[in-house]
């Protein structure tokens, strides 16, 4: 069983409270929490877009497969072969010193690298063929299948995983993501009920301050037409990031605020200002690239369009 400190660290990571997790002190090397704490802190740095801090954090002499995997992920494409080798290592029989949680983490980290490299099938094979399918591997599979527009497959994986461990926070988060992606109704008959319930419950936890949770609930509220409440969530998320002095996750906040402002009854200039911030600061954001490509397509079609001559009515 995890210590209370490690439980809180895992909770912070799962719920996206990266700035707070990064500030967590490293325990003594003799502590059983030493390796897991370094691992989750390193993953928080990665999620915050700071791979250099990961490489500085991981001990050079470490032989732990999970720590070697997160260091390889921080190296980008240069670490792909190392991650492939580690996947072979964790699948080898006779490595009793490698725990189940380490196998699960290595598979997830490797799959993450493969997804980033565009190797979706390799990522799926890595997660499906790992020696043990843990909670994080199951959650990663769910998110990949949702991104591939295969919600039925995602639901099957999630249902099986929840039956085995219904209290796993990472699986509950995946359940909320599935509800968000599919608009699934709960017993109340309201759309996105599971997502709203999860985000609201976690936001009531005073020990976790997460902009990601607020963005998640803000998006659900946009989809439900609750624009004022959505804007309140998104503004609070922006405030959390501002207090933490980080821009990690600000692109998602701005995207949500742009949509909420555009759909609302407020001034049009506000939505245009938010869009300008998003497109200029984060030009590679999916919403920015999508609209940019559509604008280019419109301009291309407009340039090819020839105005037909005016119709002339012949005298009878």
Tally of individual helices: 17
> End-to-end distance, in Å?
95 Å
Quick one: overall form? globular
Structural class by sheet pairing and helices = mainly alpha
Brief rundown of the structure:
The protein is 68% helix and 0% strand. It is built from 17 helices and no strands. Helix 3 packs antiparallel against helix 4 (51-57) and helix 5 runs antiparallel to helix 6 (80-91).
How would you sum up this structure, described in words?
With 316 residues, the protein is mainly alpha-helical. 68% of the residues lie in helices and 0% in strands. The radius of gyration is 23 Å and the shape is globular. The N and C termini lie far apart (95 Å). The model has no long low-confidence stretch (mean pLDDT 91).
Would you spell out the secondary-structure blueprint of this structure?
Elements: H1 4-14, H2 18-22, H3 34-47, H4 51-57, H5 65-74, H6 80-91, H7 100-116, H8 120-129, H9 135-147, H10 151-164, H11 169-182, H12 193-203, H13 211-223, H14 227-243, H15 250-263, H16 268-281, H17 286-304
What are the main properties of this structure?
316 residues, mainly alpha, globular
């Amino acid at each position: 069983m995890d210590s209370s400190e490690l439980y809180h660290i895992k909770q912070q990571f799962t719920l996206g409270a990266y700035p707070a997790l990064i500030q967590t002190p490293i325990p003594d090397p003799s502590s059983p929490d030493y390796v897991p704490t370094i691992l989750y802190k390193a993953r928080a740095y990665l999620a915050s877009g700071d791979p250099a801090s990961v490489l500085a954090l991981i001990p050079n002499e470490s032989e732990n497969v999970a720590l070697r995997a997160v260091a390889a992920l921080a190296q980008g494409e240069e670490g792909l072969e190392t991650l492939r080798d580690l996947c072979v290592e964790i699948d080898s029989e006779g490595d009793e010193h490698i725990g189940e949680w380490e196998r699960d983490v290595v598979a997830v980290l490797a799959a993450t690298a493969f997804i980033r490299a565009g190797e979706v099938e390799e990522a799926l094979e890595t997660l499906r063929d790992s020696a043990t399918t843990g909670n994080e591997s199951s959650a990663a599979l769910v998110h990949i299948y949702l991104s591939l527009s295969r919600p039925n497959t995602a639901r099957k994986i999630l249902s099986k995983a929840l039956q085995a461990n219904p209290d796993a926070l990472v699986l509950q988060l995946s359940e909320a993501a599935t509800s968000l992606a599919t608009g699934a109704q709960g017993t109340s008959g309201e759309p996105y009920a599971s997502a709203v319930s999860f985000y609201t419950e976690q936001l009531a936890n005073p020990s976790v301050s997460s902009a990601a949770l607020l963005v998640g609930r803000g998006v659900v509220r946009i989809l439900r037409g609750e624009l004022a409440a959505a804007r309140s969530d998104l503004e609070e998320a922006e405030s959390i990031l501002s207090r933490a002095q980080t821009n990690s996750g600000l692109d998602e906040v701005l995207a949500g605020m742009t949509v909420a402002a555009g759909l609302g009854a407020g001034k049009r200039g506000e939505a245009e200002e938010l869009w300008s911030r998003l497109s200029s600061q984060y030009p590679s954001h999916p919403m920015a690239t999508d609209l940019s490509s559509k604008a280019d397509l419109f301009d291309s079609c407009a340039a090819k369009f020839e105005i037909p001559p005016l119709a002339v009515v012949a005298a009878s």
